[in-house]
Amino acid sequence: MKNTIKVERAKKDITQDELSKLAKVSRQTINAIEQGKYVPSTVLALRLAKIFEVEVSQLFSLEYGDWE
């Protein structure tokens, strides 16, 4: 799964630590999501979308291998 969390953070000029506090998760969780090592829960994905004021589909997208 691809994501644009890092891009959205840059647009809002916020750090991983600041985002983690807003999203109520650890900074390590935000880092793992950005690196594609962790797939967030639906609730966390919705929370992040709300923070960035975008649709979930603008933050996360499936890659070819995710269909198999």
Helical amount among residues, as a percent range? 55-70%
- Report mean pLDDT, rounded to a whole number: 96
Low-confidence segments, given as residue ranges, are: none
Instruction: Give the amount of beta strand, in percent.
Output: 5-15%
Q: Oligomerization state of this entry?
A: single chain
Short structural description:
The protein is mainly alpha-helical and 68 residues long. It has helices spanning 5-12, 16-23, 27-34, 42-52, 56-59; strands at residues 2-3, 60-61.
Question: If you had to describe this structure to a student in words, what would you say it looks like?
Answer:
- This protein has 5 helices and 2 strands; from the N terminus they run E-H-H-H-H-H-E.
- It is mainly alpha-helical.
- The chain has a two-stranded antiparallel ribbon with strand order 1-2.
- Helix 2 (16-23) crosses helix 3.
- It is globular and about 35 Å long.
- The relative contact order is 0.22.
